[in-house]
UniProtKB/TrEMBL annotation:
Protein name: SOCS box domain-containing protein
Family: Belongs to the ankyrin SOCS box (ASB) family.
Entry keyword set: ANK repeat, Repeat
Protein source organism: Zoarces viviparus (Viviparous eelpout)
Pathway terms, separated by semicolons: Protein modification; protein ubiquitination
Pfam families: Ank, Ank_2, SOCS_box
Each ANK repeat, start to end: 44-76, 76-108
GO biological process terms held by the UniProt record: positive regulation of protein catabolic process; protein ubiquitination
Gene3D superfamilies found in the cross-reference section: Ankyrin repeat-containing domain
Amino acid sequence: MPFYRVLPHQTYSLSVKFTLLSGNLKIVRLMIASSAQLEVYDVHSGPPLHIAYAKGHVDYVKELLNAGADVNSVKFHEVALHHTARVDMVDMIELLMEFGANVYASDNLGRKPVDYTTPASPAYTCLMFYESNPLSLQQLCGITVRMRLGTRASEVIGQLDTSHRIHSNLQYCDHPASLQSGT
């Protein structure tokens, strides 16, 4: 008798978890293409997005978010921004914000992500910028469309007959975020 039993619907999620831990982006992409469940919660590490950001894999986080992972999913009373603020991961904060992370999310102690930074840190500057400069209507529309489409977002947006500009807004593109343009 195994130590614990894996139910059939958990197989892809566990596979994504172990793939994220092993560090193979090509396999993560293959798992996503094979309809891996991106929001199944593992008691020890949360959903796959939480594993990716905790390991500091910006490219993995981007793949998961592009595939429809919930940027504001909760693990042990905190969202990804709490962790990335705590460890001063500005690139990750910028990416999470581009996908609609809630800069005002509070944890079980009532603390926002900025409360886990020090005033002189780059993470503090970044989070304070997003607190005082809300996303544009264009950014919010792109986020809303991606969230509504969920895991089908990349596929559906790729098939739309729209201008390049609209397509770039709907589909996440590597464009400089707010702080990078000012430095």
